[in-house]
Amino acid sequence: MLWAAHFALNQAVPSLHGDMDMTEYRRVKVTMTEGVAVVSFTDRKILDATAIEELAKDLFALCENDGVKIVSDFVGLEFLSAAALNKLIILDKMIRRRSGKLAFCNIRPEIMETFEITRLDKLFIIKMSLSEALQWIRE
Length: 139
Description:
Layout: H1 2-9, E1 13-14, E2 20-21, E3 28-33, E4 36-41, E5 45-46, H2 49-62, E6 69-73, E7 79-80, H3 82-97, E8 101-105, H4 109-117, H5 120-123, E9 125-127, H6 130-138
Parallel strand pairs: 4-6, 5-7, 6-8, 8-9
Antiparallel strand pairs: 1-2, 3-4
């Protein structure tokens, strides 16, 4: 059973350019959907410094190529610290510099309230559902 879990975590997934990518992610799950990286968080709460740095490493690795398209699906995520929000701001800047697109979806009301208070809802593209985010990102 342990071997099966290890195998599932280490399987190759298509990279953003369609070839096989052996990147291992610690804090996110990445699924490719028609050239779009759909990223979901593996943790319900992102609080401690180690988790935040691992999350940043995972996310930043996704935007190494020009024109990258990423949808970050917040389903299941209950809390993000201020430091984690800062990493999302950096991610957005990195993607924009590379002429890519980033959208967020399925954000819980409590997290959305934080985005609104900090005015990050004006910076990020936020959609209600994954299908809406995918539709926007493909435009």
